[in-house]
Amino acid sequence: MLNNITLTPFGISGLLAGIFSFSFGLFVFLKSHDRKLRTVWFLFALSVAGWGFGGFWIGTIQRPDSAMAAYWVAYSLGVIWIAPLFYHFIHIFLNLENKLFKAHYLIALSFVFLVVTGSFFTDTWTSINDFQIPTGAEPCFVIFLAWWMGLIIYSHLLLKHAYNSVSSNKKQQIKYFFLATSIGFTGGSLCYFPMFGIRLYPWGNFTVFLYPIIMAYAMMKYQLMEVRVFLRRAALLIGVYIGLLILGFPLMAFLHSLAMNPQRISQPWVSMEIVVMSLLLSFGPFLYAYLIRSRSYFKEHTMAGLTHELKSPLATMDNALDIFSKRIANKMDREDLEYLAMLKNNQRRLSNSVNDLLNVYKVDGNSSLAMSEIAPLELINSVEESFDSLLKLKNITIKKNIESKQPKFRADRDKLLQILGNIVSNAIKFTNQGAITITVCSRENKIEFSVKDQGAGIARQELPYVFDRFYQGKMKQKNQGTGIGLTIAKAWVEAHGGKIWAESEGEGKGATVAFTLPV
Predict the structure, then answer these.
(1) Where does residue 458 rank: exposed (0-12), middle (13-18), buried (19+ CB within 10 A)?
(2) Tens of pLDDT along 353-385?
(3) How far is CA 498 from CA 69, 246, 490, in A?
(4) Which of 7, 220, 361, 363 would staple 491 via disulfide (CB 3.0–4.6 Å)?
(5) What is the pLDDT of residues 53-72, one digit of tens each?
(6) Rounded CA separation 84/108 (Å)
(7) Beta pairing, strands 499-503 & 434-443
């Protein structure tokens, strides 16, 4: 029965398009902070993947009656949705207001209805090198194609019109979008030619898989993501799905042969084939996420090298300023001394930022922990003392809420001081008055620390990102910093096998950052 399955060049191109579209769509979805943009992009990538996997199915079929079901799936789950989702994506990307999204989605839904009711394709089929395709276009199909191409062209006209008024980053992204279109859409459009009597094998479908790669590259490169890591993660994601497809191929081939028996198409087995494929692909994100978290090879390290390069000249500047101030400080007037103090303060601030960055990448490199017994109260007192002058300056008090007879526990003292120091520093930064409460308590086999402030609070939509590297949210203009304090805290907590989280009822209502460590 497996001998009935033949993989054609078109089938291979469809498989590539499906894997790459789904992989890079998921990649951007997991990486981007813009929830609406990433969601629509992912749906768009899924629609391209729908055509890709549908094309793979079409490419394995040699009988017109079997090919019809494959075309139904490829169009109803893929092709029809590509144009409205791209149109929607471009409007979000350019921050344009538009109320026609629902109308276009309803139009797409009506075309899906026409596909499944048999009003879309003709009953006349032709074969081009074992590639089955309907010949002649029904009026509904011509209307669909005009609408589909019109949305794609209009969306690119919007990009062209906005080019001169957007930021330099978006200009670069738009250039890549046009490059992707010239390759992907142009090549993919060649698949329509045989439907209008032009006997041209759709080799252009091989360019479709390049489209999501170029688009995803443009979106992520100009959001400061390291390109090498991008390619590593992309290769990992592709590898994960190729591995899953190889493992699942015998079962999928068996189900496919049952669905496409010589007598008739078996709809239950077709449905089973789709369900099994969906379950197989849904396992991919979990395996991908596990590998990303457990292997530093797939993490970003461009800034690590840059940071090391900065550290040496900063140390030289520090020494030079010390020597300079000692030699001629008594010859300077008050204004010169103020300038010298300003230079030293800014040099110290830059050095601290560089050290913070080094700490981030030190954790990523799986730095070892020096475990020792720690008394919670003594630890909290040390943290309070380190911020004593700043607390007095801002008239903020620290309240300690520690359970009596709290037992000692084992952890890396220096790293724990850094964790609490970063969290408390953040609380002080965003609190203008009031108190900061530090609570320590036992939770089954864990010890929990929490730092609660009465400061600016965190918007609900920002809570998922507060531990992301360099993320500063809406308050970044009011409070200067590198945006990695909580990132470092999270990294060291996780290095201890613990968990960290943030809570807030909204802006102006304070925030709580808490973490647990195993004992």
Answers:
(1) buried
(2) 666 666 655 554 445 678 889 888 888 988 888
(3) 51, 36, 9
(4) 363
(5) 888 888 777 666 667 778 88
(6) 8
(7) unpaired
